[in-house]
Design goal:
- By secondary structure, the chain is mainly alpha-helical.
- It has 2 helices and no strands.
- The chain is elongated.
- Keywords: Membrane, Transmembrane, Transmembrane helix.
Length: 93
Amino acid sequence: MGSSWRRTLGNVRSFISNSMGSVRGGSNIASWVVAGTLAYFLWIKPSQDLHRQQQEKAALAASDPHRYVEKRKPIPDPQLTGLIYGAIMEGTK
């Protein structure tokens, strides 16, 4: 009875170490730290920054609608600029 929980604990440790990859020991931990750091700076931090910018922009637009000015230029219609050839729509003439 006493060895069953030890065997279960050993199986859990073995499963976790096998699921983390074939590298064992300190190099395994170091590789996970490097992967986690890269994931943070490549995916998590940019999405958090974008979300924060959107919140700030929304708060500024809600606080004073006359002061807020969108800084992006509108995208021109490629058919009117000559990038796409074909018949121009009747409503734009």
